[in-house]
């Protein structure tokens, strides 16, 4: 899946080092990238992203 130029990339407010994971939502997919290497993007189904986020928060 290609990432649209108009997605909004977000990173944690706790990210202070600049070495962060960024997320963007695009309909049925969630995109994940490393802030230090933004050209490499992984896309996963939105439902799977929600499960991942809930797991990391716990």
Could you estimate the helical fraction of the residues in percent? 10-25%
> What structural class do you assign from the helix and strand content?
alpha+beta
Mean pLDDT: 84
Between the first and last Cα atoms, what is the distance in angstroms? 29 Å
Annotation field: number of helices: 1
What does the overall shape look like? globular
Largest sheet descriptor: 4 strands, antiparallel
Q: Into which percentage range does the β-strand content fall?
A: 35-45%
- The total beta strand count reads 4
The succession of helices and strands, N to C, reads EEEEH
Radius of gyration: 11 Å
- The strand line-up of the biggest sheet is 1-2-3-4
Q: Unreliable runs, pLDDT <50, ≥5 residues? A: none
What would you say this structure looks like, in words?
With 58 residues, the chain is α+β, with helices and mostly antiparallel strands. The chain has a domain at 18-57. It is 21% helix and 40% strand. The protein has one helix spanning 46-57; strands at 10-11, 21-26, 29-34, 37-45. It has a 4-stranded antiparallel beta sheet. The mean pLDDT is 84. Residues 8-56 form the DUF397 domain. InterPro entries: DUF397 (IPR007278). This is DUF397 domain-containing protein.
């Amino acid at each position: 899946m290609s990432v649209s130029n108009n997605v909004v990339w977000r990173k944690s407010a706790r990210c202070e080092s600049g070495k962060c994971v960024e997320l963007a939502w695009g309909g049925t997919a969630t995109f994940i990238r490393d802030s230090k290497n933004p050209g490499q993007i992984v896309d996963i189904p939105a439902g799977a992203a929600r499960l991942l986020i809930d797991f990391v928060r716990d």
